[in-house]
Amino acid sequence: MNGFISFMASPAGRWARVFAGLALIVVGALLAGLWWILAAVGLVPLLAGALDVCVFAPLLSLPFAGTKIRQNMQA
Questions:
Q1: H-only helix segments in 31-65
Q2: What residue segments make up the domains of the chain, in order of their start?
Q3: What pTM was estimated for this model as a whole?
Q4: Backbone angles phi, psi at 2, to 5 degrees
Q5: Contact 23, 42 (CB under 8 A)
């Protein structure tokens, strides 16, 4: 299995996505002008980490849900 997807499905990967999403939202909130675009983009990794889904996994023919990815890693 792809190492990137394995990391993203792990608890550390989930936390990394949550923190990256929060960072994008904070930076977007601090910028003037089209700040809402960066803040909206930050919602994707934030929600993906919080909901335990990996948006890149289907591109590699892997399950969308993090629990199923971890089950495939153990099998």
A1: 35-51
A2: 3-74
A3: 0.73
A4: -60, 130
A5: yes
